[in-house]
Amino acid sequence: MGRPRCYAQLLLGLLLLRLSWCLVVADDGGGAEEGGGVFPVVVSTWPFREAVRVAWEVVSPSGAGGSAVDAVVAGCSACEMLRCDGTVGPGGSPDENGETTLDALIMNGTTMEIGAVAAMRYVKDGIKAAKLVMDHTEHTLLVGEKATSFAISMGLAGPADLSSPESIEKWTIWRQNQCQPNFWKNVIPVGSCGPYHPIGVPSEESKGSVKHVLEQTQGGICQGLLEPNNLLEPMNSLKSVDRHNHDTISMAVIDKAMDQYQDLLHMLMMKLVRVEQLVMVVESMRRGMEPRDAAMDAILRIARKYPEFVGAVFAINKKGVHAGACNGWTFQYSVRNSSMQDVEVITVAP
Ligand SMILES: *[C@@H]1O[C@H](CO)[C@@H](O)[C@H](O)[C@H]1NC(C)=O
Ligand SMILES: *[C@@H]1O[C@H](CO)[C@@H](O)[C@H](O)[C@H]1NC(C)=O
């Protein structure tokens, strides 16, 4: 089956484009019996209680009767509107030109369909745009102004200014600090604002080699991400200048027990964690490991090699048992299921 691999590569590719949202939905289409009563469950990275409450209202047995996908859209739209953590959604972290653009991804766990937008300008509804891409195109990802014109043509509001006083201020302070820190490398000037010029690039022997370099680059994008010194850091953006900015919400709504591949979708991917680690957690759970041990095992394996890495994984099994593990920071996630009175925020210490 080519599917899971495809999924992994997509996720990598999208992270490269610095996701503001990474949304995962699973729904087994009504096949599974195991663990029946424990679902639906809504989980989200970070203590974004309001987002989880809104999603729960949509998918809960006594709620609006929406699908898992609807719930994720509602929950994440809430976060975009509330600008959760000050960084998610319109008015959130600016790029180096001072502009805020949005990224979002959504997946239907049954069909494995994905829709995503990246670096979308002038439209405030990132997650709704992603769903429109999934529902109404054969594409996976639309970017920049092409995403904008698509979203507006499909009925979303725009064009609108995605800046806020806070995002402008953040950018102004960064400019005053000589544009430091930033994500440029092998360029001059060092330590001040651009324009930048490349240094130390291998000289090209002939015009013919340009194509060769291009081909290599295109083929190497995903592989490049797996190299030790390139831990999925978003590029060319102020977003991760403060590494402890959240910037991202990942939310999963699980409405039924799942099969083996859908386990994968229940791993919420954090910045700086690699897809292999997620696959490993799933494999471990399949072999009978508890979510806590599986998550811990994956994190420890990375930490042993790269003690400095900052990341977290979250795992949930077919019985609805969930756990997280992290390294380099204290990580929180939020959960709601039918026996809880309200959203529970769980803190995971490294
Ligand atoms: C909901 O989650 C709590 C704690 O995470 C757990 O104890 C409980 O069994 C779960 N409820 C269901 C119906 O699975
Ligand atoms: C996923 O897509 C299928 C086919 O279009 C649909 O029947 C199902 O309801 C979708 N799942 C969710 C959770 O929306």
UniProtKB/TrEMBL annotation:
Entry GO terms, CC: cytoplasm
Listed InterPro entries: Ntn_hydrolases_N, Peptidase_T2
Keyword Membrane present in the record's keywords: the answer is no
Task: Tell me the active site.
Answer: 248 (nucleophile)
As its record notes, the protein acts as a catalyst of:
Cleavage of a beta-linked Asp residue from the N-terminus of a polypeptide
EC number assigned by the record: 3.4.19.5
Q: Please report a single Pfam family linked to this protein.
A: Asparaginase_2
Name the Gene Ontology molecular function terms of this record: beta-aspartyl-peptidase activity; N4-(beta-N-acetylglucosaminyl)-L-asparaginase activity
**What range does the record give for the signal peptide?**
1-26
- List keywords of the entry alphabetically: Autocatalytic cleavage, Signal
Its top-level enzyme class, in one word, is hydrolase
Q: Where is this site: Cleavage?
A: 247-248
Q: Does the keyword Coiled coil apply?
A: no
Quaternary structure and partners: Heterotetramer of two alpha and two beta chains arranged as a dimer of alpha/beta heterodimers.
Q: What PANTHER family does its record include?
A: L-ASPARAGINASE, N(4)-(BETA-N-ACETYLGLUCOSAMINYL)-L-ASPARAGINASE
Which protein, by its recorded name, is this? beta-aspartyl-peptidase
Tell me which species this is from.
Leersia perrieri
